[in-house]
Amino acid sequence: MKKITISFILMLVVATAGALVFVGLSPDFVEPSTLNEQEGLSADNPVWDKSLDDLAAYLVDQGVLPSEEFAPLSEGIATAARSYSGLELYWWDLEALQEGSNEYNAYIGARDDGAIDLWGSGAMMPVTAVRGPFALNITSAYTGDAAKAEEAFRNFCAEADGQTEGGSGNADSDGTD
User: Fold this and answer.
1) Where does residue 156 rank: exposed (0-12), middle (13-18), buried (19+ CB within 10 A)?
2) When you count CB atoms within 10 A of the terminal residue's CB, does the N or C end of the chain come out lower?
3) Are 65 and 102 in contact (CB under 8 A)?
4) Cβ count within 10 A of residue 173
């Protein structure tokens, strides 16, 4: 009986020590973030309510794009993905994204890692900038000033006075007005 009691106590001590080591080596708990949270961009920034048409109009006003004419890009990466003369613009409807979907994973990858894993294939497409529900990719086909394009994109998403030039700010569910 004494051997069983001592064995049982040793087993409890080992289990408790193992649990303490596991907890001690685990990373600290981090509150989960929502999709509408980005470092340096508040959740009440008006950019969260803007559309892809608003962004394109702003970039035309800034002289970054020659027109608002676009070619649609592949589906399944973003809610709306368009190519404007070598500038690729992406917009995600964050309220409709389903966790685990290709679009959700593309947004999280672009936001957190600066690259989109195309349809989970392992083929990584880098993006130049991600702010709010938008991403910008400057391709080699773009003949304008890339630095000016990136600056205009960041200015569109800036907090400033809460307003940007160009566009109405009334976004439909597909990223267009």
Assistant:
1) buried
2) N
3) no
4) 11
